[in-house]
Amino acid sequence: MLFRKAIDADISRFIEFRKILLEYENDNSMDNVFADYFINSLENKSLVAWVAEDGNLIVSTVCLSICQLVPRFDNPSGKIAYLTNVYTIPNYRRQGIASRLTREAIEDVKNQGIKKILLHSSDMAKSIYYELGFSEGKNYFELKM
């Protein structure tokens, strides 16, 4: 199993996994929007993306979107990461692949000086995030518009 940073040639697999995660796997209407996002974000480094590859098959992905917030005393750069697009194809699950891939991606953003990562988790994945050292936050609100 090879764990590596994503390249442009991997974008179609990221799009495929994104649509599965969003439960729109047969809808191609957003493919160009997704492709533009991945191409631009990888190029401008606002996205850190990793893949796990078995032979020539990408079996798992992890993305961290880098966000710029107002600086704080505990985070002078204001940069945080948002963990997203964590997906492993079913017959590769429960082998520690997503955990290892997420560790690699976390180390990558940590080396960039990012001190905080946020995420939304499915119930199925919570144990992985606890294992990686994440804790559930409080005082979180959302406004859908």
Topology:
Blueprint: E1 2-5, H1 11-21, H2 31-43, E2 47-54, E3 57-68, E4 79-88, H3 97-111, E5 117-119, H4 126-131
Structural key phrases:
4 helices; Aminopeptidase; alpha+beta; 31% helix; 145 residues; globular
Please give a structural write-up.
The chain is of the alpha+beta class and 145 residues long. It is globular and about 45 Å long. It has one domain (2-131): Gcn5-related N-acetyltransferase (GNAT) (Aminopeptidase). 31% of the residues lie in helices and 26% in strands. It has helices at residues 11-21, 31-43, 97-111, 126-131; strands at 2-5, 47-54, 57-68, 79-88, 117-119. The chain has a five-stranded mixed beta sheet, with helices on both faces. The model has no long low-confidence stretch (mean pLDDT 92).
> How many distinct beta strands?
5
CATH topology: Aminopeptidase
N-to-C span = 42 Å
Any idea how many domains? 1
What is the C-alpha radius of gyration, as a whole number of Å?
15 Å
Count of discrete alpha- or pi-helical segments spanning 4 or more residues: 4
Helicity level = 25-40%
The profile of the biggest β sheet is: 5 strands, mixed
Q: What percent of residues are in strands?
A: 25-35%
> Segments where pLDDT lies below 50 for 5+ residues?
none
Mean pLDDT: 92
CATH class reads Alpha Beta
What structural class should be given to the helix and strand makeup?
alpha+beta
Q: What's the overall geometry?
A: globular
State the CATH superfamily name.
Gcn5-related N-acetyltransferase (GNAT)
- Placed side by side, the strands forming the largest sheet appear as 1-2-3-4-5
The CATH architecture designation is: 3-Layer(aba) Sandwich
What is the H/E order? EHHEEEHEH
